[in-house]
Write a structure and sequence with these properties.
about 80 residues; mainly alpha; about 0% strand; 4 helices; single chain
Length: about 80
């Protein structure tokens, strides 16, 4: 039964790190205050904060074009 708790802990750690990386990757799309607030929420409440973050923002879509790619396709600058 000890393996279950070890596996659960590793899963929580992976999700926690994924949330922080996702917040940092998307920092250009939100203000510095919102980014800091999400990071603080996840650091203070690791499990609940991570669940709330992914429910509110969703996981990033790796297939979605990035802003620079959209700029190259449309020729527009924002």
């Amino acid at each position: 039964m000890a393996w279950f708790w070890w596996l659960l802990g590793v899963l929580i750690l992976v999700l926690w790190i994924a949330a922080i990386v996702d917040i940092i990757r998307k920092r250009h799309s939100r203000t510095a205050g919102k980014t800091a607030a999400w990071i603080l929420l996840i650091l203070i409440l690791p499990i609940l904060g991570t669940i709330i973050y992914f429910l509110v923002n969703g996981a990033g879509d790796p297939g979605a074009p990035r802003t620079a790619e959209i700029d190259r396709m449309t020729g527009e600058r924002y």
